[in-house]
C-alpha cells in the first residue's frame, strides 16, 4: 500500500495528460503518477525530467537504464526496481549486467564512449 494516497481522478489538464500517458504505457494509472498529481507543478517537473531523460541522444538506452537501476538499487525503491527490471528486459539488458550493479568493481565494463564534442583534442585546442 502506498504511504501517500494519490489522486483517483485527474483534476487538472496536466494530471489528465499524465494519467492518459500512464494508461497508454502501463495499461493503468500508476501510483507515482497519482501521487505526483497532488501538486501540478511537481507533476510537470517530474514529467519534463522523464521526457528529457528519454530524449537524451548521447547515451544508449541500455546504459541509461543501467544508470536508473543503479540509483533505484541505491535508494532502495521497490517500485523503481520492479518496473525497471521489466524495462531492462525490453531493452536487452542481461541479468548478469543487472547483478553486476551491486559490485562497484564491475562498473568499468560500462564505460561510455567519449562524444565528439567532448573529445580531449577539442578541449585542448
Distance between the termini: 56 Å
Regions with pLDDT < 50 over 5+ consecutive residues?
112-125
> What's the structural domain tally?
2
Using the CA coordinates, give the radius of gyration: 18 Å
Q: Please state the average pLDDT score.
A: 79
Order of helices and strands: HHHHHHH
Main structural class: mainly alpha
Q: Count the helices. How many?
A: 7
Spatial shape: elongated
Description:
By secondary structure, the chain is mainly α. The protein folds into 2 domains: 1-54, no CATH class; 56-113, no CATH class. The protein is built from 7 helices and no strands. Helix 4 runs antiparallel to helix 5. The longest helix has 16 residues, at 40-55. The model is unreliable at 112-125 (pLDDT under 50).
Task: Quickly list its features.
single chain, mainly alpha, 0% strand, 2 domains, elongated, disordered C terminus, 125 residues, 61% helix
Summarize the structure in short.
With 125 residues, this protein is an all-alpha fold. It has seven helices and no strands. It is 61% helix and 0% strand.
Write the layout of secondary structure elements.
Blueprint: H1 13-26, H2 31-36, H3 40-55, H4 61-75, H5 78-91, H6 95-100, H7 120-124
Helix pairs in contact: 4-5
Amino acid at each position: 500500500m502506498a504511504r501517500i494516497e494519490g489522486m483517483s481522478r485527474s483534476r487538472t489538464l496536466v494530471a489528465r495528460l499524465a494519467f492518459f500517458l500512464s494508461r497508454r504505457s502501463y495499461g493503468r494509472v500508476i501510483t507515482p503518477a497519482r501521487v505526483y498529481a497532488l501538486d501540478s507543478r511537481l507533476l510537470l517537473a517530474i514529467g519534463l525530467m522523464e521526457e528529457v531523460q528519454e530524449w537524451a541522444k548521447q547515451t544508449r538506452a541500455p546504459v541509461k537504464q543501467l544508470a536508473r537501476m543503479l540509483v533505484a538499487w541505491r535508494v532502495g525503491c521497490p517500485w523503481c526496481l520492479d518496473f525497471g527490471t521489466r524495462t531492462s528486459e525490453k531493452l536487452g539488458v542481461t541479468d548478469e549486467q543487472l547483478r553486476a550493479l551491486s559490485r562497484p568493481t564491475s562498473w568499468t565494463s560500462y564505460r561510455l564512449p567519449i562524444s565528439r564534442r567532448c573529445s580531449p583534442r577539442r578541449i585542448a585546442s
